[in-house]
Protein: Response regulator transcription factor
Organism: Alloacidobacterium dinghuense
Amino acid sequence: MNKKIQVIVAEDQAMVLGALAALLETESDIAVCARARNGREALSAVGKHSPDVLVTDIEMPEMTGLTLASEVNSRYPKTRVVILTTFARPGYLRRALDAGAKGYLLKDRPAAELADAVRRVHNGLRVVDPDLAAEAWSADPDPLTERERQILWRAGEGKSSTEIAEDLHLSEGTVRNYLSEAISKLGASNRVEAARIARSKGWL
């Protein structure tokens, strides 16, 4: 008998997490070896269980799915990552693929596609919604640096320059410089508008 594909599911909404795990467990060739409610928990679980595939949401506490994908790709390259999200935005897809994700699925797709994606990614294939993929490679490139993204995301959450500086162990002047650069790159008039534009493109 062939060994089952070992999967970890990471999702911060308990009901969705339970549903996804139950869905995958109905497949005779797939076993869910762990569940995680945030990015750090998921990274720890991958280190402990060495799964074949990690299925993760993008927006989670502690660590986003995109950062998680990058960390898993770097530390545990044998584990393949599938992003499962509501974000049908080219910017997110490009960042996911850049982070090493092998699959990018939307939550409104038929349930059977998730198990199929797990199998295909496990077999070394890449699984991406074709319409979104075509749109992604013709979309505007992300102009933000990783540090600008970190700061602009916090600004968009309503944090002050002082709070952002404390979070990232930077000076307030440095934070203001990064924000000014991001606002300029995005053609925005202020930090709130810049964050809104970046989110709409999938750059935050």
Remarks:
- The radius of gyration is 18 Å.
